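Please go through this protein, sequence plus structure tokens, and consider how the sequence yields the tokens. Keep your notes short.
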Amino acid sequence: MVNERTGKRCLTAINADLEYDVAGNQLPLITTRKSYWKAAVAELLGYLKGYDNAADFRALGTKTWDANANENEAWLNNPHRKGTDDMGRVYGVQGRSWQKPDGGFIDQLRKIVDDLSRGIDDRGEILSFYNPGEFHMGCLRPCMHTHTFSLLDDKLYLTSCQRSCDVPLGLNFNQVQVFVLLKLMAQITGHKPGVAYHKIVNAHIYEDQLELMRDVQLKRAPFESPQLHINPEIKTLDDIEKWVTMDDFEVSNYQCHEPIQYPFSV
């Protein structure tokens, strides 16, 4: 099919379901090409901290928001943009400061952490970044839009929903974030991590990526999965907000093949 936004043909699968055994600590980091796990974790940390500025993400160790904040023509001309590096009301801003009609704000993440720390699961421990009423106030609508936490027999589970995924470029980035989110949330709420479920509504490979995927990456033999280590001193959401950096995360036993430069579709 032809994608309306990019004008490119792509192979598309609808409703792809993935699972990650977080309890077994087998990090879903693709080994058939080099994967940049640090940028993925740094971006996730920025969301949890509620950042709305690309400079703050760069300080954490990722440049993933530079282009969307500063090179998106529609956003540059948007009256809601506050200046250089401003991202607007996207992702973590919605998660930490969802605006109510009465002018107040809801900290979704704080409520979830407080509930889970007390052993409460009201079947509504949902972190949503998807706010159609404020799409015009941000530089990009979210791809990974909803994270639902479930507590069962002192094990914490996560179901993450993603509306769209560029498989060659974005999948491994998103896999790492889902895995780390469950492992980190289990740690700060005092529970054992269970399984992370990752649902992708539209998974696609663009036509100019297909040859590299088919003839290069898929012909490489994968290595064993690496392990993720998180500083055990991270015990609260306040710790994440105040002092946690990329120095508190480590991946061991990571072997991979050479990088692959896949084309990016804007």
Notes: The beta strands are 10-21, 98-99, 105-106, 125-128, 144-152, 155-162, 165-166, 192-206, 227-230, 249-252. The mean pLDDT is 96.
